[in-house]
UniProtKB/TrEMBL annotation:
<dbReference type="GO" id="GO:0046983">
    <property type="term" value="F:protein dimerization activity"/>
</dbReference>
<dbReference type="InterPro" id="IPR040238">
    <property type="entry name" value="TAL-like"/>
</dbReference>
<dbReference type="Pfam" id="PF00010">
    <property type="entry name" value="HLH"/>
</dbReference>
<dbReference type="GO" id="GO:0007399">
    <property type="term" value="P:nervous system development"/>
</dbReference>
<keyword id="KW-0805">Transcription regulation</keyword>
<feature type="domain" description="BHLH">
    <location>
        <begin position="73"/>
        <end position="125"/>
    </location>
</feature>
<feature type="region of interest" description="Disordered">
    <location>
        <begin position="1"/>
        <end position="77"/>
    </location>
</feature>
<dbReference type="InterPro" id="IPR036638">
    <property type="entry name" value="HLH_DNA-bd_sf"/>
</dbReference>
<protein>
    <submittedName>
        <fullName>HEN1 protein</fullName>
    </submittedName>
</protein>
<keyword id="KW-0238">DNA-binding</keyword>
<feature type="compositionally biased region" description="Basic and acidic residues">
    <location>
        <begin position="50"/>
        <end position="63"/>
    </location>
</feature>
<dbReference type="GO" id="GO:0000978">
    <property type="term" value="F:RNA polymerase II cis-regulatory region sequence-specific DNA binding"/>
</dbReference>
<dbReference type="GO" id="GO:0030154">
    <property type="term" value="P:cell differentiation"/>
</dbReference>
<keyword id="KW-0804">Transcription</keyword>
<keyword id="KW-0217">Developmental protein</keyword>
<dbReference type="GO" id="GO:0045944">
    <property type="term" value="P:positive regulation of transcription by RNA polymerase II"/>
</dbReference>
<keyword id="KW-0539">Nucleus</keyword>
Length: 131
């Protein structure tokens, strides 16, 4: 029950409220919560959200970063970005591989082999131009 000595820290975290509690808020007769306090659940969540914001302000920058990275939404977005980065990286190696002469031409090379062969080939081309 909310009263004047109730602090913001006693409020439940915003994610613990069921979404169905907000469905009646704003409709006729929907301004009371289930306990009959005369408080719209949405106002309780906004108070809890403000408490959460105040709590986050006291955290260090590193702790805020850790909490943000712990969310499923962040992890999914990060995994997608990483997948795109790796695909671009592999395409770049494939393009470089096409430019390098090897025997047999379709020989599978590791990334380090591609880089070493590219270094040797560039050195060879420089030598040819100097002669």
């Amino acid at each position: 029950m909310l009263n004047s000595d109730h602090t913001e820290l006693d409020l439940p975290p915003p994610h613990s409220e069921p979404e169905s509690a907000f469905s009646d808020c704003g409709r006729a007769g929907g301004t009371e919560d289930t306990a009959g306090l005369g408080i719209c659940p949405q106002s309780r969540v906004s108070e809890a959200g403000e408490a959460g914001k105040k709590e986050l302000q006291h955290l260090s920058r590193e702790e805020r970063r850790r909490r943000r990275r712990a969310t499923a939404k962040y992890r999914t977005a990060h995994a997608t970005r990483e997948r795109i980065r790796v695909e671009a990286f592999n395409l770049a190696f494939a393009e470089l591989r096409k430019l390098l002469p090897t025997l047999p031409p379709d020989k599978k090379l590791s990334k380090i082999e591609i880089l070493r062969l590219a270094i040797c080939y560039i050195s060879y081309l420089n030598h040819v131009l100097d002669v």
